[in-house]
Amino acid sequence: MKLCYKSVVVKSLIGEAATTLIISFLTRPDMQELYMGEFIAWATLRLSSKLTEDFGVRIGAFRTLAALFKHAKREEILQYGKRVLQNVTISSFHTEDTVTRKLGTKLIQRIGQIFLKTRVSSIPS
Description:
Elements: H1 2-8, H2 13-26, H3 29-47, H4 55-71, H5 74-90, H6 98-115
């Protein structure tokens, strides 16, 4: 996972591949207990980083959290939703560049989806 942390901040295909690798690890039941909380704590700290050299870190954190909230099961990720949402809103992503605004909006939408009630689709008769 430490190698993934270093790779996710790279602004190229390596960063996108690291995001996919992290998501495939964290959505496995045996890895969630070990790494999910640690990763979300790491990523939420990086969301509020304003330093220019940390731009890749912020983008990687936004991208990976958005993918995590997309692929993880609702029950597994629900406990982290409130904390991540607070850090995203504090990060003032909406005043940043286009990429950060896009990823921040995507992340907020996906967090919002986990807070909605589940609905069973009915089959028309």
